[in-house]
Amino acid sequence: MGWEDRDWAKWTDDERSRFFGGGGSGVGMMPGALLGIVVSLVGAVVFMHPFRARHVLLPPVYGTGVVVHLMNQDTTCTMQSLEGGKWQCMRWAILLRGQRALPALPLPTGSLCSAAVVDQPSHRWICATPS
Length: 131
Hints:
It contains 2 helices and 7 strands; from the N terminus they run ααβββββββ. Strand 3 (73-83) and strand 4 form a beta hairpin. The N and C termini lie far apart (81 Å). By secondary structure, the protein is α+β, with helices and mostly antiparallel strands. The strands form 2 sheets. Strands 2, 3, 4, 6 and 7 form a 5-stranded antiparallel beta sheet that branches. Strands 1-5 form a two-stranded parallel sheet. The protein has helices at residues 13-20, 33-53; strands at residues 61-63, 68-70, 73-83, 86-94, 101-103, 113-119, 124-130. Helix content is 22%, strand content 33%.
């Protein structure tokens, strides 16, 4: 059955006016209803704006500064261990949308570590386990 065949589609302007109120314009809205809808939509957009902006304001993640795509996620290395004279990544931090990876400050000169981790507040590599 098409919409033209339904009972409400066959109403006259007077019948529609009695049911919905207002004039016989056929719009089917009470006076002020359109204004209410517009105000609600504007309010929703204004309310949602701060949530959208938060993605841009996320603090960076300090580590190697190199972004690696692992298991459909952007990551950066935040913990390394010394194996065979080379640093190997032991812990990966997942970057959220809008988040950047930045290189942490190096270990202090003369540090002998078998593992290093990034202290996020100081943005510096520190010894996790001394050699």
